[in-house]
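Subject: for your reference before the review

Hello V.,

The reviewers asked for a structural picture of the protein, and I figured it would be easier to keep everything in one thread rather than splitting it across files. Below is the amino acid sequence we used in the manuscript, unchanged from the supplementary table.
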Amino acid sequence: MSPALAKMWVAIASMVFMFISVASIYISRYKAKNKTIRFILAFIAYISMILAGIIVIFVVFSGPTPE
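And here is what came back from the structure prediction:
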């Protein structure tokens, strides 16, 4: 697997983390009734958004690939 293709998969993983974050924060704010479930879903949302941000920073600042 070329470095450019590996970088693409890492960027797609970041988008998946962002989707998980949006979905879980939506469920925790509008659909969940139990406070414990709301807290757990919000915690998952914020952790996945932080991971997505770290991955995006890595992809952007690692520069272009030579292909």
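For the response letter, the relevant points are probably these. The radius of gyration is 15 Å. Residues 3-31 form the longest helix (29 residues).

Happy to draft the paragraph if you're swamped.

O.
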